[in-house]
């Protein structure tokens, strides 16, 4: 599929993998994007695909260039879902020269034992592929240390690696202006929050580095090619990497027998009564944490409820909060509540977590013994009102 100026999409779709990284569900599948610059004089391949798809990948490459050789393989990112076919590409195209930075080649040798022809590039280095002038920029930790982007100065195409990527296979078309992009926006936030979420600062640096480039098209390694929606995509990555949340509250709770959930319902009702429209409720044992993390990245308010389990937090809440902490999230406003039957621990532990997370605490925590009594109900409403007032204070 030609994108423009002899640049072709040769990526593949994976609709069978259950969990990306063996962790994150893929309800819409995922694409592994690779691009081919098939200029009259020279051919360059940019990133490869998961090795399980090599046959279909090779067919796609050959449908564009037939028996021509490939001169260069540019490796923007070494994660195996993109680097997995490097060894086989090298077997089929033995004269191909690998292009990457110093850190790339440490991984090329370590993963694939390849030590042959290479072109080691540094920040701002240049490679000419026919009429395409390619320039390389290093964007370490977006989201591995070797990550770089390749900018085609001739066509204004940014080959961005995982940056600006999102879950979701491509169903026929691949350029945003030709397809219905509805599903990809949430899938982009979920991809970012699950995979890249910890690396807000490196993403900010990468955005600054790319901000001066005259980008007309973004070709990332997952999801659609962005042409029409570049400002929206960049804005979304900017906001997510600054951990900026919209007005709204995620209420997430861990319960075994439903009593803690009753408190959650009371809080949600009062938030709504106070004029908060975006209220998302998650039972942490039911919704995969991948989706909960995505919502926590979206909204500014977070209220966590947890029952006491063997003098600790309920395991699913503990596990979720560990994931939030691992992403070093900032700028969240948090309230919390908990329950117990004979000896309480959950509320105290949640309090300790707010310190670890460095979130702004709002309202008084509600601690409920066994079932929701009238005073717990009033305390829950007060917590919800405190959250609503705090969010409304940020309205312009
Ligand atoms: C495995 C297990 C461990 C528990 N550990 C504690 C505990 O350490 N302290 C306590 O006060 N209650 C403990 N409880 C009792 C819970 O507080 C009680 O089941 C309560 O109903 C849980 O709230 P829920 O209705 O929201 O699930 C435990 C219950 C279970 C099933």
From TrEMBL:
Q: Which cofactor does it need?
A: FMN
Location of the Flavodoxin-like domain: 249-388
Top-rank taxon? Bacteria
* UniProt-listed SUPFAM superfamilies: Flavoproteins, Metallo-hydrolase/oxidoreductase
Pfam families (alphabetical) = Flavodoxin_1, ODP
Question: What family is it from?
Answer: In the N-terminal section; belongs to the zinc metallo-hydrolase group 3 family.
Q: What is this protein called?
A: FprA family A-type flavoprotein
Specify the species.
Answer: Phocaeicola faecium
